Amino acid sequence: MFKKKKRIIIPLFILAVTAFLALIGYISIIFLGHYVIDEKKLILHASSKIVDQNGDEVASLYTENREPVTFDDIPKHVSKAFVAVEDKRFYEHHGIDLQSVGRAIYRDILAGGKVEGGSTITQQLAKNIFLTNDKTFLRKTKEVIIAINLERDYSKDKLLEMYLNQLYFGHGVYGIQAASHYYFNKEVKDLTVSEGAVLAAIPKAPSTYSPILHPDKNKERRDTILSMMNEQGIISAKEAVRAQGQTLGLHIKKKSETPWFDSYIDLVMKEAETKYSISGEQLLQGGYTIKVPLDSKLQKTAYTLMKESRYYPGTDENAEGSAVFINNKTGGVKAAIGGREYTSRGYNRVTAVRQPGSTFKPLAVYGPAMQEKKFKPYSLLQDEMKTYGDYTPKNYDGQYGGEVTMSDAITYSKNAPAVWTLNEVGIETAKSYLKANGIDIPDDGLALALGGLEKGVSPLQLAGAFHTFAAGGAYTEPFFITKITDEDGETVAGHKASAKRVFSKQTAWNMTRMLEQVVKKGTATSGVYHGDLAGKTGTTSFTEIPGATKDAWFAGYTHDTAGTVWMGYDKTDKNHYLKGGSSYPTRLFKDILTQAGENGSAFSKPDKVKELESPIVLEPVKTVTADYTFKAAGLFTVVLKWDAQEDKRVVYRIYVKKDGEETLLDSNEGKNSYDIPYANLFSGASYKIVPYNTQTKKEGEGTDYVRPKLFSS
């Protein structure tokens, strides 16, 4: 009886101990699973994309080319193709398929080595996301622990979704959606049965079964998968046969090779980090959509033309350049080229500082001078070689006129009047305007009138400042990001328009009209642009070589676009310098806009702003005739006649000289004759004509005095 009880008790005891140990084991698995699983790793990296002003994608940013999708976006015939080949009992087991493990062990023993794996989809997910590829027993134990816990915490559909989103499909492509785009150029929801099987054939060995590298091997495995799907009741025999008879049907989405976007993309990433605290790593992994104010056509045109050597008068072919263009309405950067041979994450010359030369004159001198109401466009400025302390500025051509209008000083880029005017305005006053235009410099000498700075300014800063004139006197900081949205379409960052008035609309308009003259007849006549263009050239000299140029600039704007082109060498020396000046960037600027289709728009004068008249040109009045005649109404009358000037706005001053005393008798506008009635034939008076400019308040060269002659009518 005792032996009988013993025979019963011992198995029960063993069963109880086994159950207890199993319970302890399960509790340990649950506990260890929560310890091993880092749920942050379940958040898969997703590619971000940059879209231009038209919404067209121009670039993808990623560490892994991945585009996560939800399970509902994946057709059943696609997801079940993976189940059929990787884990046909996926919906029946709880993370570990003991039947598959037993079968794998049995076949390994028969073969005398490892020939079949027993990992479920859940185990593969655990391994791919949480574990390294080492082959230790501990790693396999962790895999089992994680798989069981994943099955406990997530539904089968969710596990399959995560699995399909993290799979590697070769050629740098991760996830089912990115693979669908890469191999078939379509959304995963549109994949056919055959296409789904093609993709399901790849993950076992992405290089071996690549449909691009080894299409025959992929097709063979695809057909096997289609047969398995038929055997498992996923598709009918007819569907399997029809799909097996199809070609692979690849439509490879070729990797876009767009080097013209590289420098712009780097500036976008820099702005995301500095302005919105979104790091480059976040952008590469976060699945963001970054909308930028980029004009793709303008960007590519600038890139293409800047590579052409004919625009660069360098001592060798390594002369560099940069260009930036801004939307006048928004302040958004439409195009930015950081160098002729720019490499990603390289030295970006859009933000590198250089000496701006005479492009600085409108910003540092003449804009502030007008805004402070010290001078007007046709005010006369001193044009003489003067010394200010130890500084003696000189005109580049060595010619001095004594006086010159502000308009002509800008048009012909005279240095002496610019420095004289800055001295009149005050350096601190000028610097306050520069700072308001986004240019904060430490310099406090009069040389800043000519762009002689300690460090310099960048093409981006200069373009932003000239944009102020184009925008009616209001400064907007140039920007590269319109908005950033996350995977759910929620806006996480975005540009907020913030314009700050620097100049009045009247000052800005006057400057526009004067800078137009620079292009029409001044230092910026090189090249052709069929539309309204205002701008300023700038050239800095390399003093070690006579006639050599260090920096050459053109900064200007049309009705729609403001911009800057710079060219020179990163390091100028006796073997590396420009042999020409600002005419080269001027021509390049015009050609970029023309070939990009930005041509023909006229400037539009703002409301309540007075038009700036074109400059009055005085010609010498060389001859005048004076004759007595008899008129009934005026008896003896002196009739003065002289050659008329082309400009009808010229005022003619009539002077009389009598008894050695000279008097302004009268003046008239536009007429080249004048009558003096009731003249005394014996007065001995003589007369002269002098042209007068009402803009400059200055007389021109007039005639000598002549006495009237008596003649009979």
Automatic annotation (TrEMBL):
SUPFAM superfamilies: beta-lactamase/transpeptidase-like (SSF56601), Lysozyme-like (SSF53955). The keyword Protease applies. Keywords: Carboxypeptidase, Cell membrane, Cell shape, Cell wall biogenesis/degradation, Glycosyltransferase, Hydrolase, Membrane, Multifunctional enzyme, Peptidoglycan synthesis, Protease, Transferase, Transmembrane, Transmembrane helix. The chain crosses the membrane at residues 12-37. Residues 321-593 form the Penicillin-binding protein transpeptidase domain. Pfam families: Transgly (PF00912), Transpeptidase (PF00905). InterPro entries: Beta-lactam/transpept-like (IPR012338), Glyco_trans_51 (IPR001264), Glycosyltr_51/Transpeptidase (IPR050396), Lysozyme-like_dom_sf (IPR023346), PBP_transglycosylase (IPR036950), PCN-bd_Tpept (IPR001460). The keyword DNA-binding does not apply. It comes from the Bacteria. It catalyses: Preferential cleavage: (Ac)2-L-Lys-D-Ala-|-D-Ala. Also transpeptidation of peptidyl-alanyl moieties that are N-acyl substituents of D-alanine; [GlcNAc-(1->4)-Mur2Ac(oyl-L-Ala-gamma-D-Glu-L-Lys-D-Ala-D-Ala)](n)-di-trans,octa-cis-undecaprenyl diphosphate + beta-D-GlcNAc-(1->4)-Mur2Ac(oyl-L-Ala-gamma-D-Glu-L-Lys-D-Ala-D-Ala)-di-trans,octa-cis-undecaprenyl diphosphate = [GlcNAc-(1->4)-Mur2Ac(oyl-L-Ala-gamma-D-Glu-L-Lys-D-Ala-D-Ala)](n+1)-di-trans,octa-cis-undecaprenyl diphosphate + di-trans,octa-cis-undecaprenyl diphosphate + H(+). Residues 56-229 form the Glycosyl transferase family domain. PANTHER family: BINDING PROTEIN TRANSPEPTIDASE, PUTATIVE-RELATED, PENICILLIN-BINDING PROTEIN 2A. This is Penicillin-binding protein 1. It comes from Bacillus atrophaeus (strain 1942).
